[in-house]
Design a protein that fits this description.
Structural class: alpha+beta
Mean pLDDT: 90
CATH class of the largest domain: Alpha Beta
Number of domains: 2
Helix content: 40-55%
Shape: globular
Radius of gyration: 22 Å
Low-confidence stretches: 1-38
CATH superfamily of the largest domain: Periplasmic binding protein-like II
Largest sheet: 5 strands, mixed
Strand order of the largest sheet: 4-3-5-10-6
Strand content: 5-15%
Length: 448
Amino acid sequence: MTQTHLAGRALSRRSLLKTVGGAALAAGAASFGSGVRAADPITLRWWSPQASPDQLKMYQAQIATFEAAHPNVKVLFEATSDEGYPAQFAAAFSSKQLPNIVTHLPSFAAQNYYGQGLLEPMDDVINAIGPANYFPGANDVFKTADGHYCGTPIGNTAADMLWLRRDLLQKASIDKAPETWDELRTACQKMQGGGIYGAPLPYGLNSMTSLIFIGFIHRAGGDVFSPDLAVAIDAKPTYDAIEFYKSMREFCPPGATGYSWGESLTAFVSGATATGIYAGRVLANVTKQNPEIADQVTCVTYPTISKDVASWTFNDFPSVFIPKGVANLPESKAFAAFLFEPKGYIPQLHAAPGHVLPVLKTIAEDPAYLADPIIQKHKADVELMAKAAAGGKNLGYETEKHKPNLKANEIIASNVIAELVQRAVLNGEDPKQVVGDTAKKLEGLMKG
């Protein structure tokens, strides 16, 4: 059994989970310095931006199981926002009204907060879950400069897959999935018409536009930063990405000027666009909301500028982390480890099959996980997303050669990349001027 060391005391995974139960609560609390007596009720606050109705139902089931085993502990789930979490966290840290556990924020957010001294190391939780149970390298993106881990992944996402409809491809006499930007643009042109647009790319001033456009820079063969974190955005691949993104505007719905994640997802699922750009939530949503096209939906990795440029998949590495200074730290760690128990973790993944992919190989191989009807039906798509996500990257971890970028969270929150898109694509400003201005803003953010 995996062993972990908490506050000078060796604990197995099972004993870690029992720390907050019954009579063990008093001993565990005293041992770990929480100062909580056995008779005291404990409330743990859990924040996450992943809170669809199906996911919320599974979270509540996990909470009920944990509370039943630990009568003195209550867990309060609170939904946050993909777009608004930086402000929510700033307010929480300022007021000292901290959540005990946070899940599903990107790895670069965890690195950023840890770099500011705002998070607890998660080594104990990783050891309690069992390092050997993870896929190789799953925790690498959470390694910190001081030798610890700022978080651990609760799942993987292949956030920018190209989603296609076989029926529309066939109708347009397209016999294979696009592999290059030229092929994608031609396919969108052929499939557009009759109230259906070619693609739902985002052009709004928001994080999706920033994150998606960063992917296009990489799919043009470029980087936002060099491996040593010097600003590298003012280069040919960025201009190629701008040109392509601009050329795709005519194939996107008028409302794409304000699209973020939800609008882009809905556009494809509803049948308003012939292609999509999203993670695996497409599968669950199309099954429930538009079953008439569910059998026609499939995905591939997003095309690159040419076949000579390798694919690049955006994986935000949805995380679990614990803010520094929270009350009831040992209980918070115990609940964090509990979230990976198969009886709760598998249903949580099944709440959005193929969207948040397992990071534990023991779960990925579990017949109970594989038995989900959507995963069974779209086995090839799920396997492709898992492979793409495993090799995925993000602004905090652009390539294997890059140093971790601890400013990535601030850069995304600033919308500086999305502003580049709006100025160069929507407003028609001179790309050289826009990219130059963006490079200066990035340099300022890195020095700030």
